[in-house]
């Protein structure tokens, strides 16, 4: 009858309950140690008030020396050229071309002396 009760009632054997209590005590102790070290480092630290985290210091050193390891490559140049140099050159070329064409029309007499297009550019100067 005891076997049927354990099988249907879902009871935990006494040994497993004892092990679970030990695990819970260990979890509580580890949690308390973690909280003590992270929120009161002066008590536990031999580094005078802060914990030494080697991964953090490695990451910080990498951030500080990033500029020393930035090698110029063709891919980097292509990115800069595509974002800065090429659009600037196109804009400058078309700006100069439109100004030359406009001044050529003014000089050749295609645009009259008192034409609205000519007066518009005189007002903006």
From TrEMBL:
Bilayer topology term: Single-pass membrane protein
Signal peptide: none
Key word Electron transport present: yes
GO CC entries: mitochondrial inner membrane
Localization of this protein: Mitochondrion inner membrane
Swiss-Prot/TrEMBL keywords: Electron transport, Membrane, Mitochondrion, Mitochondrion inner membrane, Respiratory chain, Transmembrane, Transmembrane helix, Transport
Transmembrane segments: 76-96
InterPro entries listed in its UniProt record: NADH_UbQ_OxRdtase_NDUFB4_su
Family listed: Belongs to the complex I NDUFB4 subunit family.
Protein name: NADH dehydrogenase [ubiquinone] 1 beta subcomplex subunit 4
């Amino acid at each position: 009858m005891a076997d049927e009760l354990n099988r249907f009632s879902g009871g935990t054997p006494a040994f497993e309950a004892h092990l679970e209590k030990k695990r819970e005590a260990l979890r509580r102790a580890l949690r308390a140690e973690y909280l003590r070290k992270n929120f009161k480092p002066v008590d536990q630290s031999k580094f005078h008030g802060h914990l030494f985290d080697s991964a953090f210091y490695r990451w910080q050193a990498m951030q500080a020396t990033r500029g020393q390891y930035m090698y110029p490559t063709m891919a980097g140049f292509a990115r800069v050229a595509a974002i800065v140099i090429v659009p600037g050159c196109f804009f400058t070329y078309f700006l100069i071309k439109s100004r030359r064409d406009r001044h050529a029309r003014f000089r050749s007499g295609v645009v009259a002396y008192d034409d609205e297009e000519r007066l518009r550019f005189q007002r903006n100067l």
